[in-house]
Amino acid sequence: MGDAITNMTLPTVRPTLEVVRNRFETWRKRRRCRSRIPESLWRAAVQLCKEHSVFAVSRALRLDYNDLKDHVQRSRDGGPALGRSPELGFVRLDLGTPLMPSECLVEMEAPNGATMRMSFQGASREFDSVELSRAFWRQGR
Prior knowledge:
The chain starts with a helix and ends with a helix. It is mainly alpha-helical and about 140 residues long. The radius of gyration is 26 Å and the shape is elongated. The longest helix has 14 residues, at about 15-30. Strands 1-2 form a two-stranded antiparallel ribbon. It contains six helices and two strands, in the order H-H-H-H-H-E-E-H.
């Protein structure tokens, strides 16, 4: 008899729309300005879309319809985790003092054919390479 109880699977209790709405409201009151929605809240919102329409859930939870729709689609496709896709953008190059002398070569070519070549040797940083790059990209505008 003991084995029958331990092997028994309990039904999964899905939170109701009201419960998830309260969780979102609590998070909104406590969050830092413009912080991302936690994965656990996204998962709960996606779960609600199994019983309610994406429109109804997005409206009740005050979520962007398209963001929620994307999360639902990713969960159906078995795609990446239910977070936002990694954003592509600027990569910071830290030109701080290296432990050992080094050499770095940066070459840039603008659409108008202009080229710029910067060569760094050793640890000397007597100029702002980022500002030089900005000036290069601004030229001709």
